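Late entry, written up from scratch paper. The run itself happened at the end of the previous shift, but nothing got recorded in the book at the time, so transcribing now.
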Amino acid sequence: MRRIGLFVAAGTITLVLGVAAPARAVIVFDPNNYVQNVLTAARELQQINNQITSLQNEAQMLINQAKNLANLPYSSLQQLQSSIQRTQQLLAQAQRIAYDVQQIDRAFSTTYAPVTGSQSNQVLITNAQSRWQNSVAALQDSLRVQAGVVGNLDTNRIQTSALVTSSQGASGALQATQAGNQILALQAQQLADLTAAVAAQGRAQTLDAAQRASAQDQGREQLRRFLTPGHGYQSQDVRMFH
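Output as recorded:
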């Protein structure tokens, strides 16, 4: 009887404790759900990384575009223009028969024209003197142009060095292109100097050849008049044609 009473008491205590104790939530671990959550988080993280990479690429592209659009900080244009102007001024200062088609045509229709029997001895002597002076002046002009071209060499050397340095240090396509264009401009200026020197030398040689040809023509006329009685040639007149 005593043992039955103990069981009843124990049951009562358990019932009381079960009613008095608060209920606790039971956590159930679901592996599949956990894996899905991890994969979702990984995909979202990858998307964020892709967006960051895309933004970085766009930023770098903008930087590159800015570099490609940046102007070359160095310009040789002023120096090249000055060199060309100096050469042009020397050519424009050509003495007597200049680089002018109409002036050349007038000279070769008068001073360098074939000798005629109607021309007086004084006209022949004057033309001979004028041709000789033209040749001397052309030789002087040629030397002056050549001196000017040589004077530009040092400027060209400095500009070439600066442009090559700028080209090698170009930060973008535009700077590299501008440096290349300026190098081409420098080469064009050097070619212009060479053309000017050749033209000046050719002018001097041509006028000298024309002077010699005219002298031979007048020499024949001189001999004819000297041998023809009544022309009254003096010894000094004969010397002026040689």
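The chain is about 80% helix and 0% strand.
(Scratch paper discarded after transcription.)
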